[in-house]
Every structure is written in structure tokens, then in C-alpha cells.
Amino acid sequence: MVNPSTAAVIQQGLVQLEMEIAYQKAHDWNSAEQLVLLIRNVQEGIRGTIETGQYARTLSDHERDTLWSLYMNLNTYIENKGTHDLTLDEESKKSFERLEAKLRTNGWGSNIGFSSDWTDFMRRTTSFLSS
To answer: HEC profile for 3-23?
Structure first.
């Protein structure tokens, strides 16, 4: 079994991302590059979890594939986006707003509690990916 704290770290990053999207909406997307940085931080947590889980042989193939799917899904929001003076077009703003809703729907939002239980994290991740 993977260390439950890794699930908590990834989920905390997703909650921070949801909160940052809400902040950016409220402040006219003035520092949208923060969204790119937060997604990259979450991706680092995912990548580290996969590498550690495979090395320790505590991550199943299905769990690995689910985590990579989450990684790639998040990557779609930051493709071709830098971190210097990022200006989002309307389509990108709407995309981030949909991401915010998906995160909240799956229990990763401000004032929503989440469990650090690995099984619960995998369930939420699968639900997120299918929504």
C-alpha cells in the first residue's frame, strides 16, 4: 500500500488549485501563471508518488495508470502556457472554471474535508477523470 500521506499531499495541492482558480476569477485572472505553477506542483507530487510506489512495489498497475491519467488530464490545462505574464483567453478561462467545478464536485475544494485514505483518493481520482 502506498503511504497515505502522499494521497493527502496530492489532494491538498488539488484543493489549493481549486481555491486559486476561484481567486483568479474574482480578481480578473491577474496572475494566472499561479495556476500553472500549482498544477506543476500537483504533477510533481503525482510523479513522485508513482516513482516511489513503483520502486517500493506498493503501487498496482491500475493505480499507476490512474495517477498518470490524472497527471495528463491536468497537463491539458497548462499545455503551451508559460509562467511569465500569462494572459488567458476566454476559452482558457472557461476551461479553468470547468476544472474548478470538477475539483469541487469530487471533494477537492475549500471548506470540503477529504480523507487521506488511499482507497478514497483513488475513488475520487477515478470519479474526477470520468466527469
So the answer is: CHHHHHHHHHHHHHHHHHHHH
